[in-house]
Specification:
This protein is of the alpha/beta class. It folds into 2 domains: 223 residues, no CATH class; 251 residues, Alpha-Beta Horseshoe (pyruvate-formate lyase- activating enzyme). It has 20 helices and 18 strands. The chain has a 6-stranded parallel sheet with strand order 8-11-12-13-14-15. Strand 11, helix 13 and strand 12 form a beta-alpha-beta unit. The protein is globular, with a radius of gyration of 23 Å.
Length: 505
């Protein structure tokens, strides 16, 4: 079996999904190969010969080898201007190389893929990408690489997690279907799960894909191999076979998931809740032993905990049993993190940054969203983390049905009061999940032009529409001196994935 992670996503850490599948397959004595076509494809585009007709492109081409080295060198992250220049120049080469390979129809950078005619939100466009794989800018790469790997392979699995991967995934699927018609094609991953959990899902890809997997893929893949009596799942992720030294980070970032779903699962409009995803944690003792084993095997520079929210029990266990490498991940704002001694223990265990989904600085908005967050506690959490030396990547959400301009300004006031404790900011405009229980309440209409869209437009009860939200963010929120200083900290393209490297001592 060949498991593929397709372009385009941030190529700064190995793909956790296919490593988890590999662990399950190999635990049962089944051979499988892993291909990070995202990393390999981006490096291939960066190596292509280009003609430079402007100063920026000439500089970028001349410095591309040095810029790749720079992103893998920790000293670069102590000089933000050098980092930004490296990212900007590599983006320039990716964009120019993709345009040359696709007739200017593809736009590629270090974190995204877009097409001028095809949309990942339309199944007809995905089928077009599959029928014409030669038009994909990565075609020269994967049409050479896949035949090397597919000899003797009976099943090919694609891990499709992001919209930025969809068109490239289907181009690769179309190529495999045409050139290796005997291979069984399986498609799974986070985006596929979201499609399949929509109430009106009707598979439009039945003639192209043999099996689409909703949710965890271990059992379906094992069943394809005739194994129905599974050993303990999930198995230890197996990253062997992936190019662990080639990712665009200063040392290996080890991704690890300690749970599926969210233990809180009470927020209104949450896609996890709308899709009915259950919370399935791995026992804490098993998490600790697996992290210690993986750390010993791979010697990571950083551990990335992928959970939607690290449970309080696991946070306590990590504080008591350091995993052996610096780490970061999402956590909920609660009373545990408001305790200075607990935060200091987390810092001693290696915690360098926590991502916090505050969403709003107005208590009424938080209550209407079911966040379970008290702003007084949130302020204490920010103070405790700052005193402990743990960076905060704060996520804010604007334009929810319960928010107006007045409430948004209170969020600005909250951030301005606590700016010294907020290291990074992520600002998002609210999208209404199409399958959420609340969608019909506010009236629905076309949001994206596509039959695979996961979101719907809605009528804000107070007229606080997306245009007004964006105007507030651009002309008021981001221009506040305290906010502007925080926003300048954000690493371009790689954002939270690289942010811990800017705060480590």
């Amino acid at each position: 079996m060949l498991l593929i992670f397709p372009p385009v996503a941030k190529a700064c850490e190995p793909p956790a999904g296919i490593a988890r599948l590999a662990g399950a397959l190999r635990r049962h004595g089944l051979n499988c190969r892993l291909l990070d076509a995202n990393l390999e494809g981006q490096l291939w585009l960066l190596e292509q010969s280009l003609t430079a007709d402007d100063t920026w492109s000439r500089r970028a081409i001349k410095g591309r080898a040095g810029n790749l080295v720079a992103l893998r060198d920790s000293s670069t992250y102590r000089t933000p201007d050098r980092y930004r220049r490296a990212v900007s120049d590599l983006n320039r080469i990716l964009n120019r190389s993709a345009a040359a390979a696709s007739g200017a129809s593809a736009v590629v950078n270090l974190s995204d893929y877009q097409h001028t005619q095809l949309s990942p939100l339309r199944c007809s466009d995905l089928l077009t990408a599959a029928s014409c794989p030669e038009q994909n800018p990565f075609y020269p790469y994967f049409s050479r690489r896949l035949p090397e790997l597919l000899q003797g392979i009976g099943t090919v699995g694609f891990s499709l997690n992001y919209l930025s991967q969809a068109l490239c995934s289907f181009a690769m699927v179309g190529y495999v279907r045409r050139e290796f018609p005997g291979a069984k094609i399986v498609l799974g991953g986070g985006l596929v799960t979201s499609w399949m959990q929509c109430s009106d899902w009707s598979n439009p890809f039945g003639n192209l894909i043999d099996l689409m997997v909703c949710g965890a893929g271990e059992k379906p893949l094992l069943a394809l191999c005739g194994i129905t009596e599974e050993r303990q799942l999930p198995a230890l992720p197996d990253y062997s076979g992936l190019p662990l030294t080639e990712y665009l980070s200063p040392g290996l970032i080890l991704p690890y998931s300690a749970a599926d779903g969210c233990y809180w699962n009470g927020c209104s409009f949450c896609p996890e809740r709308a899709e009915g995803n259950r919370y399935r944690p791995i026992p804490t003792k098993k998490v600790l032993s697996e992290l210690q084993l993986l750390t010993a095997q791979t010697a990571p520079a950083l551990i990335h905990l992928l959970d939607n929210a690290i449970s309080p029990a696991l946070l306590q266990a990590l504080a008591d049993n350091p995993p052996g490498a610096p780490w970061y991940g999402f956590a909920r704002i609660d009373r545990h993190l408001a305790e200075p001694d607990f935060c200091r223990a987390l810092r001693r265990s290696g915690c360098v940054m926590l991502k916090l989904g505050l969403e709003s600085g107005d208590q009424g908005v938080l209550n209407r969203m079911g966040k379970g967050i008290d702003l007084e506690t949130a302020a204490r959490v920010l103070t405790a983390l700052q005193q402990a030396g743990i960076a905060v990547y704060c996520y804010l959400l604007f334009g929810t049905p319960g928010e107006t301009l007045s409430e948004a300004r209170r969020t600005l006031e909250f951030v301005a009061r606590h700016y010294q404790a907020i290291t990074f900011l992520n600002l998002a405009v609210f999208n209404m999940p199409l399958c959420s229980a609340e969608a019909a309440e506010y009236g629905t209409e076309l949001f994206y032009d596509g039959d695979l869209s996961l979101y719907t437009a809605f009528q804000h009860p107070d007229g606080w529409d997306r245009r007004q939200v964006r105007h507030f963010l651009e002309h008021e929120f981001k221009r506040h001196p305290a906010v502007a200083a925080i926003i300048r900290n954000d690493p371009p393209q790689f954002s939270s994935n690289h942010a811990p490297f800017f705060v480590r001592p």
